[in-house]
Amino acid sequence: MRTRVILAKGSNLGKEITLAPFQRIDTDHIVLGLALRLPQLLPHDQSLDDVFEHWGDMRWAFSVKFVEHLRQIDEDYRILAEYAMVAEEREWDNIRVVEGYALNIPWFYATVKSMHKAKSHGITEVTVTPEGIWIEHAYHERDKGIRILTQGWASLG
User: Fold this and answer.
1) What's the DSSP call for residue 105?
2) What global pTM score does this model have?
3) How far is 144 from 116, CA to CA, in rounded Å?
4) Stretch 124-149: mean pLDDT, rounded?
5) Where are the alpha helices (DSSP H) in 5-54?
6) Which of 103, 37, 34, 99 is nearest to 70 (CA)?
């Protein structure tokens, strides 16, 4: 049977619809990991101290700004390689949810989506908002959306 992967723009969804950590990838954590390993790639106006101090408040801003900065300095391949490495470690077919604010960047989202399609994964596109969840262009309140995603793995197309 073909593996279905949910690509969730936004955050805080994966833990609610998967059973184990190896079934989900948080792209914002991948971005942070790359910044920790290669701090020389950070924009000049960003520091890791600021990121750690305000991670909860500025997670989305840091992820988006850092990934776009990598693109501007022609180092975007690093974040894509990092993603592929994490996906390989978790075994591609075990992944059920990929989430994070970094997926709001069109070129990054398209590349992650293409990687999963190359592995013959079916893709369900989701956008998480504070009020609810958009699943394939249909809006649902959060509880109903989570129920659809957890009960409807086989029926999502």
Assistant:
1) S
2) 0.86
3) 26
4) 87
5) 14-17, 27-37, 48-53
6) 34
